[in-house]
Every structure is written in structure tokens, then in C-alpha cells.
């Protein structure tokens, strides 16, 4: 249910952004809102809670974001309050970015490594993945010591496992088949 609601609101905002040629601007503003919520969790809880009236939520939004967001994004946040959908804003923002990226032929990818990628390695990997997919790649780097070494790349529903942990798992499976 939440996914459907979020997708509906994201599609509505996306169509307005396309019509007004504000796709990137709205995406940046939505990111700013989410960053503000993450920095000020009490404010975020106030925005999401049904215990505070819609009018109070709108006043809080005005006080916090006035002059920092476009009128359309301000109105969007107020509409979410009016419709009692403030609890799905994270999913809406995620779906909005997904729609915008699809429209712009962009794919988000995550490279999981044990150490941070150097900038030149990140750029080279983005270029290689871009050639592979035919799309622009936005690469994020996450650290995970459990992979032991190598790299795991996630792009949408695709996974490229070049980790030591992955290779050991495959070796373990092969040995298990031989022994059985």
C-alpha cells in the first residue's frame, strides 16, 4: 500500500517537474528536505506524526523552509500534510529520483569495497559501467569489511560479485558438490 501511494505522489510531482523543466531542481530540493529531516530528527518526527494538526505542520514547514525551497515543493510538502501522507515522504523521494533517472537515462550503482575508492578509480569504474550499460552511471562507494577483498557492484537488479567472499562461497559450493 505504501509503495503504491508513494509512487502515485512521485509520479504527480515528476510530471509537474517535467512540465516546468525543473527535474534536477526539484530533486535537489527534495534531497535538501530529506537531509534536513535526517539532521533534525525531532523535526522529522513532528512532520510525520498524526498527533500534530495539518495546519501546525504547514506552519512548521513555512518557518523552516521559507526561501529555501521553490513554491511547488513547499506546496507539495503541504499537500502531503493535508492528505496525511507525511509518513511516506522518504519513499516518495526515492521514487521521484528513480523516475527522474529513468527519464535521464541514468543508473545508480553501488560499489562495495573494503577501502574507499580513489577518485580516479571511481571515475574509471563509472566510465566502464557506462560503456557496459549505455547509460550514465552515478556511482556510490560503500565500505564492508566482510567481503574480505575485491568489489561487489549493484546496479538496479544486477549484481557483479568480484569479492573474495563471493569466490570463497563459489569454491565452497563446488567442493560440496564434489564431496556429495
TrEMBL record:
This protein is part of the stalk that links CF(0) to CF(1). It either transmits conformational changes from CF(0) to CF(1) or is implicated in proton conduction. F(1)F(0) ATP synthase produces ATP from ADP in the presence of a proton or sodium gradient. F-type ATPases consist of two structural domains, F(1) containing the extramembraneous catalytic core and F(0) containing the membrane proton channel, linked together by a central stalk and a peripheral stalk. During catalysis, ATP synthesis in the catalytic domain of F(1) is coupled via a rotary mechanism of the central stalk subunits to proton translocation. It is a peripheral membrane protein. HAMAP family: ATP_synth_delta_bact. It is found in: Cell membrane; Membrane. GO terms for cellular component: plasma membrane; proton-transporting ATP synthase complex. It comes from the Bacteria. Pfam families: OSCP (PF00213). NCBIfam families: ATP_synt_delta, PRK05758.2-2, PRK05758.2-4. GO terms for molecular function: proton-transporting ATP synthase activity, rotational mechanism. The keyword Transport applies. InterPro entries: ATP_synth_OSCP/delta_N_sf, ATPase_OSCP/d_CS, ATPase_OSCP/dsu. The keyword Cell membrane applies. This is ATP synthase subunit delta. Belongs to the ATPase delta chain family. Transmembrane segments: none annotated. It comes from Anaerosolibacter carboniphilus. Keywords: ATP synthesis, Cell membrane, CF(1), Hydrogen ion transport, Ion transport, Membrane, Transport.
Amino acid at each position: 500500500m505504501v509503495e503504491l501511494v508513494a509512487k502515485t505522489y512521485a509520479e504527480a510531482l515528476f510530471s509537474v517537474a517535467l512540465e516546468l523543466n525543473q527535474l534536477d531542481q526539484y530533486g535537489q530540493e527534495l534531497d535538501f528536505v530529506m537531509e534536513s529531516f535526517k539532521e533534525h530528527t525531532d523535526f522529522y518526527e513532528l512532520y510525520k506524526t498524526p498527533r500534530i494538526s495539518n495546519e501546525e505542520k504547514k506552519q512548521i514547514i513555512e518557518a523552516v523552509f521559507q526561501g529555501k525551497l521553490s513554491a511547488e515543493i513547499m506546496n507539495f510538502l503541504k499537500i502531503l500534510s493535508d492528505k496525511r501522507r507525511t509518513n511516506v515522504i522518504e519513499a516518495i523521494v526515492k521514487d521521484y529520483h528513480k523516475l527522474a533517472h529513468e527519464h535521464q537515462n541514468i543508473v545508480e550503482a553501488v560499489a562495495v569495497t573494503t577501502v574507499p575508492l580513489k577518485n580516479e578509480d571511481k571515475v574509471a569504474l563509472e566510465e566502464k559501467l557506462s560503456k557496459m550499460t549505455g547509460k550514465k552511471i552515478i556511482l556510490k562507494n560503500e565500505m564492508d569489511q566482510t567481503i574480505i577483498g575485491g568489489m561487489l557492484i549493484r546496479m538496479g537488479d544486477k549484481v557483479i560479485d568480484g569479492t573474495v567472499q563471493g569466490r570463497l562461497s563459489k569454491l565452497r559450493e563446488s567442493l560440496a558438490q564434489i564431496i556429495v
